[in-house]
Structures are given as structure tokens and as C-alpha cells.
Specification:
The protein is of the alpha/beta class. The protein is globular. The strands form eight sheets. A five-stranded parallel sheet has the order 3-2-1-7-22, with helices on one face. The protein has a five-stranded parallel sheet with strand order 9-20-10-11-16, covered by helices on one side. The structure holds NADPH dihydro-nicotinamide-adenine-dinucleotide phosphate.
Length: 445
């Protein structure tokens, strides 16, 4: 921690996706010297379609599922000319404008991979970077602080364990991470597994071109439309009136969904085993219609494969050509040793989802899955970290941080369906308020 008077030491930002670029802007404005390394040749991370960083999961038809107003950075609002739910192209263009507006592009080192971050003797971190596509030796530099912003929706999680007989399936098994366009599904018999946002988007696309589309899931979900009563749904849920206690939010949301679209079981989906807001929202305006058109058939979980036949847990079976596993992502940090930060089953012990209590100087930006959008929350996190780095705010002792981590984990267990997809959840408003309180309460006098 830097004392209030000292000049902050140099920071390393890993990644120039939506979290890395806002961290760069905030550190720059706060006068914290930094380097930012990005594997691709452009900013935007997951929102850059066909990103040459090789790890974007964006498919061609991807539009964000939170509204423009919910996703924009406070420091740089999105143009009002953009639609309510911009496409990945529009979002990537916004990120381009953002870095150019703040003069950040030349401060980012592109086509450079961070291969190792190791705690250094005497404090700080030794960061080893490698130029991509150039025959040059990896280079190690020392930083006082490291801000990890490498994203958490790029390392595909395949079903664990794989389904019996999967290895005998003669068709294509792929993960949503690799899905780009529906052409590859045209005329095929397609099974899509999962009921998160990737599964619904891909099943909907498949249903327009495939011969048959089956949507298989191990539990039901509440489907939240993108628009209700003529406005983006998060305009309703973001209103101060909708920010009461959680039980009221749940009641209000359940009532709105019932009025707007009835029960999910009316469309052939299974009854969810949880209440609304007890799982990460599945947002789709199209799924229920495609089900109502009979172009998607709902199935329970996959049980096993026998040759080209996919058996489901209710004993039914279909012949399939393609199975798309929309089974989520792993939180991973390939450059951090397990002895530094371990992300087993997507659990990472971080104080307020940002600070490693065991490794001073190591921060994580955007390692959250909000009900809401990540970008403005990553911005709040960056402001907090900048204040810590410049000595305006101090961190509590490690024991206090660990106690907060334990209570966060406990709250998650009580609130959400037990799943590896619910280990880094936050409610946007509550979390923003929590970070602001943290900055106020721990401000150095
Ligand atoms: N338009 C947008 O903005 C989009 C945003 N996203 C976001 O990307 C993130 C990742 O979404 P997504 O890719 O859908 O992944 P998620 O982790 O959200 O969903 C994974 C789904 O797969 C199921 N699943 C996982 N493992 C298995 C298994 N072994 N057998 C059967 N089912 C399994 C999960 O069930 P269970 O709940 O039981 O674990 C869940 O239904 C989310 O934050 C999402 O909101 C994704 C697509 C589009």
C-alpha cells in the first residue's frame, strides 16, 4: 500500500477488453504509471468478433443483453444513436472511440501475451511477456501492482465428466465458445445443451436453419424478455422503485414476467427449481416464440450417446448431427501459478471481488457476473484500486478481508442455485454502493 504522499509505483494491466481499458483510463487519470498488455491487435476482448487474440466467444449475431444505458462507462456515455441493445460491432466501435478519446491506444502494448506473473522477493510482481508472432525472447519486467483483466468468458467449460458414449458420437460436438454463425447448423439435427444466454441464442438461430433443434437442459430457467411494456427490461428493474429488498424485487419481477408472457411451462419449458433472481438471468425475446412455433423441442439433460443417437434422462432419444455444449466458462488465469491464485470450480477468494488478501498489489478487474452489466462496475472497481494505489484509501487487514470473502460466499450459497456459473455473482446497484461505501469508509484522513 502506498502512503498518501508517495508517487504510486508502476502497474501492469493484463488485457485490453472492456475491463482493461477502463482500468487504463482510470489509472491514467489518477496519475498512476502503467503498462497494459493485450494479446490481440485491437481493444474489446470478447466484444471483438473474430478477435485475433484467439479467445473471443462472440458469435456473428451477438447483441448485448443489457441495455446501452446499463453498459456504458460513466466517463464516456454511449452515443444515443446506438440502439437499446447494440451489436458486438457497435460495442467494439464504442471501445475504439473510448480509447482514442482518452489517448490510451498508444499506451497499450498489443500482440503481447502475459505468460507469467510471479510474486517478487521484496514485493511487487515479476511479469513475463512475450511478443506474439515475433521471434523475440520473453521479457520480464517488475511491477509494484498487477491488475488482472483477462476476462472470464473465454475458457470453455465442457460437461464434466463428459457424457457416456460421447467419444463414439460420429457427428460434431462443439462448445458455444467456438460457435460463430448458423451456417454450420443448416439442414442438420442439432442438440443444444444448457439454458443460459448462449444456449438460448444458439438454439434460436439453429431453429431457423436446422432440420431439427433440441434444447436440452438439466434444470429450467425463468426467461426474461429484452423488452417489457415498450422499454428495455433493465430500465424497469433499474428504476429506484425496483430497488427494494430482494424479496420484493423477486415478487415484482415474477409478477411482471407472468403478466408479460405467462409461465415458462406454457411454452413447454420445465418448471424452474428456483425463484426468479436466484439464477443468472436468461434473457431472450425470441426463445418463447420459437418454442411456440414448434421449431425447438425441449429435452431434459443428455444421459448418454449411442453412436449418432443422443439419449436424454427421460429415456427419449434423437438422432443428431451436431451437439453444441453451451455449458459455460472456466475462470482461468494461465499466467498465475496455482500457488498464487487458485480458481477451482470458478471460486476465487477476493475481497469485494477485487483484492487478493494474500497477495498485496494483485487486483482483479471485471471478475464479476452482475445482474446488470460488467463495464460500469469494472469502472467503479478501477476507481477504488486507483485510490488504493495513490494512497487515498487503505485496505483493511487480511483477516477482515477474509471474513468478508466468507460472508460473500455464504450469501451466494443462500441466494443462488448451486452451480459453477454462480461463484462471482453481484447485483449491480448493491455492488456499486458497496464499493462506494468501501472507498468512503477506508479513506485515509
Ligand atoms: N447477449 C449476451 O450478452 C450474452 C451474454 N452471455 C453471457 O456469457 C456468460 C456465459 O453464458 P453461457 O455461455 O450461457 O453459460 P452459463 O454458465 O451462463 O450457462 C451454462 C448452462 O449450461 C448448463 N450446464 C453446465 N454444465 C452442464 C452439464 N455438465 N450438463 C448439463 N448442463 C450443464 C448450466 O446449468 P446449471 O445452471 O444447472 O449449472 C447452464 O444452464 C453469462 O454471463 C451470459 O449472460 C452469453 C451469451 C450471450
Amino acid at each position: 500500500m502506498s502512503p498518501a504522499s508517495s508517487r504510486p509505483g508502476r502497474a501492469c494491466i493484463i488485457g485490453a477488453g472492456s475491463s482493461g481499458i477502463i482500468a487504463a483510463q482510470v489509472l491514467d487519470a489518477a496519475g498512476v504509471p502503467f503498462d497494459c498488455f493485450e494479446m490481440g491487435s485491437e481493444v474489446g476482448g470478447n466484444w471483438r468478433y473474430d478477435n485475433d487474440n484467439g479467445v473471443s466467444s462472440a458469435y456473428r449475431s451477438l447483441h448485448i443483453n443489457t441495455s446501452r444505458q446499463a453498459m456504458e462507462y460513466a466517463a464516456y456515455p454511449m452515443p444515443e444513436s446506438l440502439p437499446d441493445y447494440p451489436s458486438h460491432w457497435q460495442i467494439a466501435a464504442y471501445f475504439d472511440d473510448f480509447v482514442d478519446h482518452f489517448g490510451l491506444r498508444e499506451k497499450i502494448t498489443f500482440r503481447t501475451e502475459v505468460v507469467k506473473v510471479a510474486p517478487a522477493d521484496g514485493g511487487g510482481y515479476d511479469v513475463t511477456v512475450r511478443r506474439i508472432g515475433k521471434r523475440s525472447e520473453p521479457e520480464t519486467r517488475h511491477y509494484e501492482h498487477v491488475l488482472v483483466a483477462n476476462g472470464h468468458h473465454w475458457d470453455p467449460r465442457w460437461p464434466e465428466p463428459s457424457f457416456p458414449g460421447a467419444e463414439t458420437f460420429p457427428g460434431v460436438q462443439q462448445h458455444a465458445h467456438y460457435y460463430r454463425t448458423p451456417d454450420e447448423l443448416a439442414g442438420k439435427r442439432v442438440v443444444v445443451l444448457g439454458i443460459g444466454n448462449s444456449a438460448t441464442d444458439i438454439a434460436v438461430e439453429s431453429s431457423r436453419v436446422a432440420k431439427e433443434t433440441y434444447l436440452a437442459m438439466r434444470r429450467g430457467a425463468h426467461i426474461v424478455p429484452k423488452f417489457m411494456f415498450g422499454m428495455p427490461t433493465d430500465h424497469l428493474t433499474d428504476s429506484p422503485l425496483a430497488r427494494g429488498p430482494l424479496f420484493l424485487q423477486k415478487l415484482g419481477m415474477a409478477a411482471m414476467l407472468r403478466i408479460a408472457q405467462g409461465r415458462v411451462t406454457d411454452y413447454g419449458l420445465p418448471e424452474p427449481d428456483h425463484k426468479v433472481l436466484e439464477a443468472h438471468p436468461t434473457v431472450s425475446d425470441d426463445l418463447l416464440t420459437r418454442l411456440g412455433h414448434g421449431d425447438i423441442t425441449v429435452k431434459p439433460n443428455i444421459d448418454r450417446f449411442e453412436g449418432s443417437k443422443v439419449f436424454f434422462t427421460d429415456g427419449s432419444a434423437v438422432e443428431a448431427d451436431v451437439v453444441v455444449y453451451c455449458t459455460g466458462y472456466k475462470v482461468s488465469f494461465p499466467f498465475l501459478g496455482d500457488d498464487v491464485v487458485h480458481a477451482e470450480d470458478n471460486h476465487v477468494d477476493l475481497y469485494r471481488r477485487v483484492v487478493s488478501p494474500d497477495h498485496p498489489g494483485l487486483y482483479f478487474i471485471g471478475l464479476i457476473q452482475p445482474i446488470g452489466a460488467v463495464m460500469p462496475l469494472a469502472e467503479e472497481q478501477a476507481h477504488w484500486v486507483a485510490e488504493v494505489l495513490t494512497g487515498r484509501v487503505e485496505l483493511p487487514p487480511p483477516a477482515e478481508m477474509r471474513a468478508q470473502i466468507a460472508s460473500y460466499d455464504e450469501a451466494l450459497r443462500k441466494r443462488y442455485v448451486a452451480s459453477k456459473r454462480h461463484t462471482i455473482q453481484v447485483d449491480a446497484h448493491k455492488y456499486r454502493a458497496e464499493l462506494r461505501r468501501e472507498r468512503k469508509e477506508h479513506a485515509r484522513r
